[in-house]
Amino acid sequence: MRLQRSRKVPDWHEYLACRRESTEHAILADFFAGADLSPDLLISEAPLMALDLETTGLDPRKAEIVSIGLVPFSLSRIHLPKRRYWVVRPHRVLEPASVTLHHITHADIQGAPRIEEVMPEVLEIMTGHLPVVHYRRIERPFLDVAARSTWGEELSFPVIDTMSLEARIHRQSLVARFKRWIGRPPASIRLHDSRLRYGLPHYHGHHAVVDSLATAELLQAQIAGHYSPDTPISMLWS
Amino acid sequence: MQAELLEISQHLGRFPPFEGLPEALLDEVAAQVQVSYFKAGTQILELDAENHEFGYIRSGAVEVTRRNGGLYDRLGEGDIFGHFGLMRNHRVRFPAKAMEDTLVYFIPEAMFHRLCDLDEDFADFVEVDRPRLESAVESRKRENDMLATRVRKLVTFAPLMVKASASVQQAACQISDAQGSAVLVLDEPGDRPRYTVEDDEGKLWQVVGILTDSDFRTRVVAEGLSPDTAVSEIVERKLIAIQSDESVQEAMLCMLSNNIHHLPVMQRRSPVGMLHLSDVVRHETQSSLYLVNSIFHQTSIESLAQLAPDVHTAVIRMVHDGADSHMIGMALSAIGRSFMRRLLELAEEELGPPPVAYCFMALGSIARNEQTVVTDQDNALVLSDDFDPALHDDYFMLMARRVSDGLAACGYAYCKGDIMATNPRWRQPLSVWKRYFSEWIEQPSAEGLLHSSIFFDLDPVQGEDSLVEALQDLVSSMAPQHPRFLAAMARNALGRKPPLGFFRTFVMEKDGKHNNSINLKRRGTAPMVDLIRVHALACGSRAQNSFERLDDIDRTQLLASGVSDQLRYAMEFLSMSRIRHQVIDLENEQEPDNNIEPENVTSEERHHLKDAFQTLSNAQKFLKFRYPMTR
């Protein structure tokens, strides 16, 4: 009996090699070269980079990025002093609803650069790191849209998604499925609720750096609780 | 402002030693934080590993152990660890382990040293043992106006002085002319160089005493003496004076403990003024001095008992004024003694003059001048050896009963162990008392030791002081000669162990178990007093007060340098915490007790108490080593 559904993971090696050949831009070429981490690399040795975006909405075709947070880390230390943070001026007018969500106001974005201006630097800093996000369906598609408008090329890369790790443990495990079968509501796998299960403190979210930090802490806790430092990254990425 | 760091800097700012830091500095700390998560059971710092940062617990719990694996401390949210090594050789001295899933903020060494340089409170806090407590105690002192105010500020006129050869009439005229109420008496230089003064012509005199308005009434007019009588014939050659740079509080205590209304003020060797009770009262209305004054004006037990609530008011006042435990202990003891004295005076009025000389003796906390609001009466009667039980005991039995019942009416509970003068065993002539004391010292027994801790704090209250002083002499000369007795006392002093400290809202015991309240007397001040007493007895000290005993101990090489200061600060902090919590109870109209509940303790106080308990525990270890227990 299989306890877990098999996960369909893209062949990152092939994708990255292909993109490295096809790209016309040096920054992208470097990024794809740097992103090609060996699947056998142990998580304890992987150069990790927590990544979080605040956006004006959830649909990358309509919404835009307003801020980007990056925090490099390893299993033993989260290097907050090396954090990076950008506020980005969207092309469309900010809607009041999104302002209440991420607290970035019209005043904050006044004079901030466009996404196309910061993308080279963001990508440069991410180069060589394995990004860690909570809910991969935001960061990757939004950065893809940003790359298309910056360079006219698509962008993808492997990530570790703490939400899907949490789902594996709390949604797809035999115990979780049994609980659901007897009518228990599924465990919440949102960032804040996931953190509580590991005794992590409450942070006021929706700042890209704070959420990056929160995500990095969550991954440290997940590895300590359910995996081992010797887990190869291919077991974790998606 | 960096919004992303607010989360961290705000959290840091809620806990010592960060809470006092300016915001800019807090932001600087937050910007340097590196974070790490530890699953329960994971080692955070390994013994002797190299270390260049210290940890701040953001969530979870950490157990810190000693080199030998014994529990050193348990830490929770907001506590710091790993800083000891940064001040030594960058090796982990106290290994740390996560007890629960724990999130740690690591702060680099350079920031640590910068904080120590920039912020004195931070430096004091991380410096182990003494200085942290010291600064807590001292900063509290700095806040107190009464302590800061010097006696000389209250002095307005130069004192009146009269030669001992003058007549009482001349003296009275001099007082009247100056509209004063007392005059200092000068005589030929003698054995008290401290009170020697030089007059305008360069001749030396000695201030020998003081004559007050009431002396003219009681010693001259009432006695029917002639106005020509020389001052030297009526002046009592006993001068109590104070130096001008002492605090007003000190002056007040001096007046309190001697029950005097006039206090000459000396600057070095010359009298510069005269302080009257009313000067101090004007400065300090509602004071305990005022209370003592009214105790002596009461004419019945009933009216004395009505003053009981004023004792509480006086304590509350003193605590709010920032008085230290020594002062509060002195004042409360002075008040207690005043009740006893007045009750004895009333008893003598009722029963007639005593048939033989006696001294009413205070024992325990009141003898040490360390009384608090929660107290019972420990007292005894030492009688002259002329005492004949068949003839005289009825008198002293009644006297003892009057005092004991009176004290009970005034809020001093009867002694549960029956150590009161009403017990015939504790109402004996001096020779019997000497035998008791000698036996306790020469043949230490369980019962004798039980008594020793109470009876070896003893002080005269009323009557013939020399009777009690004879016992003090006996103890101070015999005790140092009897190592077996000292060892037994030391063993007794080790019976009550301080708790390890606090962990979250619990008091932690050595075995790692928790308690939700702590008896600060039983676990703190009492073992401290016991311990100091053993050293004091070994030194042949005659002091009764723990702080004064430490002064005597200091004059010997008994304790390593700095240790007595540590004990002083720990004793002060434990005592003040106890008093402050009693005052909180009083203000909430609850029965005050010696218990404090950790949830009512601020995080700062928690840290200081932890240090104080640690100091006590170290001192107990030394005691064990210094007085080996050979059974």
Automatic annotation (TrEMBL), chain A:
The keyword Mitochondrion does not apply. InterPro entries: Ribonucl_H, RNaseH-like_sf, RNaseH_sf. Keywords: Exonuclease, Hydrolase, Nuclease. Residues 47-228 form the Exonuclease domain. It comes from the Bacteria. GO terms for molecular function: 3'-5' exonuclease activity; nucleic acid binding. One of its GO terms (cellular component) is cytosol. GO terms for biological process: DNA metabolic process. PANTHER family: DNA POLYMERASE III SUBUNIT EPSILON, PROTEIN NEN2. This is 3'-5' exonuclease. It comes from Halomonas binhaiensis. The lineage of its organism: Bacteria, Pseudomonadati, Pseudomonadota, Gammaproteobacteria, Oceanospirillales.
TrEMBL record, chain B:
Residues 17-115 form the Cyclic nucleotide-binding domain. This is Cyclic nucleotide-binding/CBS domain-containing protein. One of its GO terms (molecular function) is [protein-PII] uridylyltransferase activity. The keyword Transcription does not apply. It comes from the Bacteria. PANTHER family: CBS DOMAIN-CONTAINING PROTEIN, CBS DOMAIN-CONTAINING PROTEIN CBSX3, MITOCHONDRIAL. InterPro entries: CBS_dom (IPR000644), CBS_dom_sf (IPR046342), cNMP-bd_dom (IPR000595), cNMP-bd_dom_sf (IPR018490), Diverse_CBS-Domain (IPR051257), DUF294_put_nucleoTrafse_sb-bd (IPR018821), GlnD_Uridyltrans_N (IPR005105), RmlC-like_jellyroll (IPR014710). Gene3D superfamilies: CBS-domain, Jelly Rolls. Keywords: CBS domain. Residues 155-229, 235-291 form the CBS domain. The keyword Transmembrane does not apply. PROSITE patterns: CBS, CNMP_BINDING_3. It comes from Halomonas binhaiensis.
